[in-house]
Design brief:
Length: about 150
């Protein structure tokens, strides 16, 4: 019985350590409280919900969504716009987990592999496209935007 309890405690500790590394709006706010407090109450509620908003700057979008999966630039007559892409992956109609998993026995530092790479027929789809003009969000596209 004591062995089961110890195993349970060890498994719980590892799960907590793994989940602590996951980036959520709450963890990003905790890591950047000054960035969050400078936002208006309406912007703060969007960030807490993990949603970008028109007029956000790049730091506010990072609080809401994290780092982009891909960045592109668009040349327009008014200058250069930046687009941040937040992707999801699917294969055979199933949404794939995009995080990493431990794939070896070389210690706690890795190697880590990406789960979605195991699917050769995977397709990347944008969950969000956030367009910036002069460093401020000017467009937001939600959903499947192949």
């Amino acid at each position: 019985m004591k062995t089961i309890r110890i195993s349970y405690l060890i498994a719980t500790a590892f799960a907590a350590a793994f989940l602590a590394g996951c980036s959520t709006p709450s963890t990003r706010i905790r890591d950047n409280p000054a960035e969050f407090t400078r936002l208006t109450p309406a912007q703060q509620s969007l960030v807490l919900a993990g949603q970008p908003g028109l007029g956000f700057d790049m730091d506010a979008v990072k609080l809401a969504l994290g780092d982009p999966d891909r960045v592109t630039t668009i040349q327009t007559k008014d200058g250069t716009d930046t687009v941040w892409h937040y992707a999801s992956y699917e294969a055979d109609g199933r949404l794939l987990y995009t995080g990493s998993y431990f794939a070896g026995r070389r210690g706690w530092g890795g190697p880590y592999e990406y789960y979605y790479l195991d699917y050769p027929n995977r397709h990347m789809r944008d969950r969000f496209r956030v367009g910036f003009h002069d460093g401020v969000v000017s467009t937001i596209v939600r959903g499947d935007t192949d």
